[in-house]
Design brief:
The chain has 293 residues and is of the alpha/beta class. The chain has 11 helices and 13 strands. It is globular.
Length: 293
Amino acid sequence: MRSKLNKKGLYNLVFGTYRTIDYYFSSQLPVMMPKPADGIAVDVVIPAVAKDADTLPLCVEGIRTNTLNKIGGIYLVSPRGQGMEEMAQRLGLEFVPEADVLGYGAKDINYVRCGYDRSGWLFQQLLKLSGSVGSMDYFVTVDADHVLIRPHTFVAEGGRSVFYVSKEYYYPYYLFFKRMFGSFPYQRLSYVAHKMVFEKARLSELKRLVERRSGLRWDRAIIDLLKSDEALSFSEFETYGHLFPGRKKTLLPWREKSLSKVVGKPAAYAELASAYGASHLAVTLPDYMKARG
C-alpha cells in the first residue's frame, strides 16, 4: 500500500509540475477562438441537484451569452422533488428526471470509497456519457457551478470539436484508463475542465469499445473497474478526450478562475464578467469551497 501511495504521489508531482509549467506558457498566448461551424447546433446538458440552486442561474446565463454555436436546447438533468423542476421552468430549461436517463439513480450505485459516498459524483459522469439527452448530434455538458464569462466555440469550422484543457494531473484517472483500454494515456494537458462537447457518434463508438473489451454494458463495466481503495478514480472527460481523434479536435487553455472564497450567494453575472473577463474565459464557484451556514 505504501509503495502504491508513493508512486501515486510521485506521478502527481512530476507530471503535475510538468503540466503546470506547460499550461502556464500555453495560457499566456492570446485566445484565438475558432469560428463556429455553420449549420451545426449543439444541445447543452446540465446535471444538477438542489445544492446547485445558487449557481445554476449564473451557469445558464453564461451559456446563453457566450456559446457561439447555435443552441438547440438546454436540458436540466436532476432528481424529482427537489424544486429543480420549478427552477427549470423559471429559467426556460427542459427538465429531464435523472432516473429516466439510465433507468436508475445515484442511490442505486451505492459507490462508497474510503469512507466517502461518491455515488452522486460517479452518477453525474455516467449521465454525461449516456448521450441520450437532447436531439442534436453534438451536446455540451457544463457543470452547474461553472460560468462562461467570455465567448466559447464548441464545434468549429470543419466539424472540429473544441476541447478546453487544464493543468490538472490525477494519476488514478490514467490507471483506470489503462485498466479499461490496455494502454496508459499520455497527453500534454488535462481534459478536466468542467465542460466538454460530445459528438454522439463518437461517444457511441467509445461505449461499444468498452462493451467489447469487458463483455458488460458500458456503465456496469465502468462501475466494476473502480478500485475500492481510491475515492476518485474515473474521469469521463479524460476518458472521452484521450480517445477522441487528434485530427478532429482543437485544444484551448480553459483559462478558468476558481472563486474559492465565496461565502453565501455568489455575485451577479455582470459583476463576475466585469471582474474576471479580461483575463479568464470562465469562473467556477465550487460548492465544496463555500462556507456553510
